[in-house]
Design goal:
Chain B: This is Xanthine dehydrogenase molybdenum-binding subunit. The structure holds 2 protein chains of 2 kinds. Chain A is an alpha+beta fold. Chain A contains 6 helices and 5 strands. In chain B, the strands form 8 sheets. In chain B, strands 4-6-2-14-11-12-13 form a 7-stranded mixed sheet, with helices on both faces. The structure holds FE2/S2 (inorganic) cluster (2 copies).
Chain lengths: 163, 734
């Protein structure tokens, strides 16, 4: 199978039972993407596939022939941080850090959804969503943070959105 | 070695001079860039080449024995390396430095207990093979229903013996006003987002274990005991831990299993519990029944206080939730009775989860105080003020720092408490009933042993080493800040090395004692370095001024690197409890406030805002401390409203063992939260002057929410969590 992962062409021959998450972590050693539940319940495994955020634990690797996959490692490395990564550091949008790559990938994907005008459950004007804090929280509620750094996560995302 | 037992208050002079201006500042996390880029390695990650995967077969019955295991089908699968069972070193449950589980038996104490191991080349094969292992049982009837089990008053479990002072019954009989209420609290999962995971490998006789663990010094001994080998043969690493909340204080079955498996297959082995396995193989906080009795006069002066509870444990574990721990020093009152009875049950182990005792004990007492204030026609803060003790009302010991009254005042002012309607149910916005509530927060402070080493190198950089863990608590950062402050170095000139039992022993992360003790040990090590620098400067240590990597004394200034040259300075610091610790009553304190909106139609509760003011001694890093406190407040919110692990009483299984049905807070549940500190350095707590932070936030926050629900609706619920079904039938007419 061929994928584009973080901009590079990669090949693998995954077990048909393997989730995209396990292939990223165990085969490609991209362990920035985390496993919190393996059941689509926590968002720790969020990656961007063809620009959209998905739970990598809920999809089999064999379903992603030729897909363009962006993980936290592709967003920015520790010395060249993406603006969203910088904002999480500045606002302390984490504690243990385990949910963090998923939060960041999810936030990047989410801002793109808003830019495209996609409404959410709490959107007043469905034709023109405005990203206030309630919208950020609603749209980020698929990403659990057991450390409960939610207020600072919202701060970080708001700042990137406003920049 | 600079060795300071807390026989008297102690504060390193250099922390007072604070020339670098680093300690306490809200600086970004030291390890932040690694975490946000996914480069920080957690237990399961960055394993050596050739690491095999372990999957655990768990018990499918709730009580009984394993009579046979048929592994042939699993062993026949390509890629399976070994199926392991019946190894006498396999623990039946979690162990720690105080108590070990049954080893190597065939007894099943609870559903979901680990009983056999499958090691395979890949995760997929291991998982499938584990399903093909057939286990035969002799199933026995289990005690699964908390309402049905027998309660023992006479037991030796737990660290908190019963307290009986004066004659509680007589004092209650004489009191002008008596409140007698019984509260129940649910099973509470720690549910760290990183599941328990361990990577183990052997090099000859030497075992190395990288494990998601809060207290690796203890884990080293526990793993050695389980394996029957010398402690020196075990090294435990935990550079990054994806949350703990008490659930990773001991050594879970999986850590020992990984070590056994690695030995048996002669390769590194790694294992991560599945999310559902964490519900069974990791301890949870016991459910409790708590009877609160408070007797007072018409002015609200308390003369009698009883806090008597029942908590649960299985037959193979020794912990007991210290329910009234936070009630002991909280309010005045001569006659006192505090007791926790034990009920044995055949469920997964109960254990320490974030603020054992206070998280649920202060919850009940703070809801009771709210109701008592209402009965007396007093403001809830006024009732608390009238019962603020001047010495510990249970032990008679003097308090060290206690700014509870200031926390109430500042909290009330910042929150706008004066806008609270004292008549419940009188504020309404359309469908929503609005209310405000408050509660006291208290968490006992522990002084513990800790050591650290600091090396001032030839390049003028300092390295601090200790076997502490950072479980999201900010350990990396506050250690760097402490050393920077002591030695006059910017944060960029400091390296922090933790999470390795080859380093000087710390107390680990638990009981909120990690930050204060580790920073104290690091500061003490720096004091020795200052002494040596003074010698090299030919000056008195107290005359040294250190800032930005330069030392000034007697009019001379020298770069640190020049003073060190080819003679790096290595020093050790040690802190331990002493006479002052014994003679005093110590705690962190706070006041919690919440505003809620309750739908008069559906009973849905929305927390609109929360605010807390806290007294935690020295604030080591304002940013990380605040984040942790806020996290604790969110825990209180979720504990009050949604978290509730439900047992099926027919078979001892959880109905909701994962995040799909066990509802931790999500972003949409969490409102704007403010946390403020009243900083008074506690020189009796430890040489860093810092009291506990990580657990304080959950104490009282749930009670503030529940009290706000009452203020909004006039309904009091005594059975946690306050879900819509409990509220709905009592709500005022729409
Ligand atoms: S690991 Fe994929 S959602 Fe939890
Ligand atoms: S930072 Fe720990 S789970 Fe979010």
């Amino acid at each position: 199978m061929r994928f584009t992962i973080n901009g590079s062409k990669r090949e693998a021959d995954p077990d048909i039972r393997a989730s995209l998450l396990d292939v990223l972590r165990e085969e490609f050693a991209l362990t920035g993407t985390k496993k919190g539940c393996d059941h689509g319940q926590c968002g720790a495994c969020t990656v961007l596939v063809n620009g959209r955020r998905i739970n990598a634990c809920l999809t089999l690797a064999v379903m992603h022939q030729d897909d363009d996959i962006l993980t936290i490692e592709g967003l920015g490395s520790s010395d060249t941080l993406h603006p969203m990564q910088q904002a999480f550091v500045r606002h302390d949008g984490y504690q243990c850090g385990y949910c963090t790559p998923g939060q960041i990938c999810s936030a990047v994907g989410m801002l793109d959804e808003v830019a495209k005008g996609w409404p959410s459950h709490v959107t007043d004007d469905l034709s023109a969503p405005v990203l206030n804090d309630a919208e950020i929280s609603e749209r980020m509620s698929g990403n659990l943070c057991r450390c409960s750094a939610y207020p600072t996560i919202v701060d970080a995302i708001r700042e990137v959105h406003e920049a | 070695m600079s060795d300071v037992a807390m026989d008297a208050p102690y504060r390193p002079a250099a922390l007072d001079r604070a020339e670098q201006g680093l300690l306490g500042k809200p600086i970004d996390r030291y390890e932040g860039p690694l975490k946000v880029s996914g480069a920080a390695p957690y237990a399961f990650e960055q394993a050596p080449e050739g690491t095999a995967y372990l999957a655990i077969v768990t018990a499918a019955i709730g009580r009984g024995r394993v009579t046979g295991i048929d592994a042939a089908a699993a062993e026949a699968m390509p890629g399976v390396l070994k199926v392991i069972h019946g190894d006498p070193r396999m623990p039946a449950g979690e162990g720690n430095s105080r108590a070990m589980p049954t080893m190597g038996g065939d007894e099943i104490f609870h559903y979901g207990q680990g009983i056999a191991l499958v090691v395979a080349e890949t995760q997929e094969v291991a998982r499938e093979a584990a399903r093909r292992v057939t286990v035969h049982y002799d199933e026995q009837p289990g005690r699964f229903d908390a309402a049905e089990v027998e309660v023992q008053q006479d037991h030796k479990l737990g660290f908190l013996p019963p307290v009986n002072r004066g004659d509680l019954d007589a004092a209650l009989a004489q009191a002008e006003v008596v409140l007698d209420r019984t509260f129940t609290t649910p099973i509470h999962f720690p549910a760290a987002l990183e599941p328990h995971a361990t990577l183990a490998w052997w090099e000859g006789e030497q075992l190395t274990v990288r494990s998601s663990n809060q207290v690796i010094g203890g884990a080293k001994g526990t793993i050695a005991t389980a394996l029957g080998i010398d402690k020196d043969r075990v090294r435990v690493l935990a550079p990054y831990v994806g949350g703990g909340f008490g659930g990773k204080t001991g050594v879970g079955q999986e850590a020992v299993f990984a070590a056994i498996a690695a030995e048996r297959v002669g390769r590194p082995v790694k294992v991560a519990l599945t999310r559902r396995q964490t519900a069974y193989m990791v301890h949870h906080r016991s459910p409790t029944t708590q009877r609160l009795r408070i007797g007072c006069d018409r002015d609200g002066r308390i003369g009698a206080m009883g806090h008597e509870s029942v908590a649960y444990q299985n037959d193979d574990s020794a912990f007991l939730e210290p329910v009234p721990f936070g009630t002991l020093p909280l309010y005045a009152g001569e006659a006192r009775r505090f007791r926790t009875d034990l009920a044995r049950i055949d469920l997964p182990a109960t254990g320490a989860v974030r603020a054992p005792g206070e998280a649920i004990g202060t919850f009940a007492v703070e809801c009771a105080m709210d109701e008592l204030a209402e009965q007396l026609g007093l403001d809830p803060i006024e009732l608390r003020r009238r019962n603020e003790p001047t010495r510990d009302p249970t032990s008679g010991k003097r308090f060290t720092t206690r700014r509870l009254l200031d926390c109430y005042d500042e909290g009330a002012r910042r929150f706008g408490w004066d806008k609270r309607e004292s008549t419940p149910g009188s504020r309404r916005e359309g469908e929503w009933l609005i209310g405000m509530g408050m509660a006291a927060a208290l968490r006992g402070n522990f002084t513990v042993n800790a050591e650290a080493e600091v090396i001032l190198g030839a390049d003028g950089r300092a390295t601090v080493k200790t076997d502490m863990t950072d479980i999201g608590t900010g350990t990396y950062t506050i250690l760097a800040q402490t050393v920077g402050e002591m030695l006059g170095l910017p944060i960029s000139a400091i390296d922090v090395v933790i999470g390795d039992t080859d380093l000087p022993p710390s107390a680990g992360s638990g009981g909120s004692f990690g930050a204060g003790s580790a920073c104290a040990a690091a500061a003490l090590a720096c004091e020795d370095i200052l002494t040596e620098l003074a010698l090299r400067m030919n000056a008195a240590a107290d005359d040294l001024r250190l800032k930005d990597g330069a030392v000034t004394a007697g009019g001379r200034t020298s770069p640190l690197a020049d003073l060190v040259r080819d003679r790096p300075i290595t020093a050790r610091g040690k802190t331990s409890p002493g006479k002052e610790s014994q003679a005093t009553s110590q705690a962190s304190h706070g006041a919690q406030f919440a505003e809620v909106a309750v739908s008069a139609i559906t009973g849905e509760v929305r927390v609109r805002r929360m605010l807390g003011v806290f007294d935690i001694g020295r604030v080591l890093n304002e940013k990380t401390a605040r984040n942790q406190i806020v996290g604790g407040m969110v825990w209180g919110l979720a504990y009050a409203l949604t978290e509730d692990a439900v047992v099926d009483p027919r078979n001892g299984r959880f109905v909701n063992p994962d995040f799909g049905e066990y509802h931790v807070a999500v972003s949409a549940d969490v409102p704007r939260i403010e946390a403020h500190f009243i900083e008074e350095i506690d020189d009796s707590a430890n040489p860093a002057g810092a009291k506990g932070v990580g657990e304080l936030g959950i104490a009282g926050s749930g009670a503030a929410v529940v009290n706000a629900i009452h203020n909004a609706t006039g309904v009091r619920i005594y059975d946690m969590p306050v879900t819509l079904d409990k509220l709905l039938s009592s709500l005022p007419p729409v």
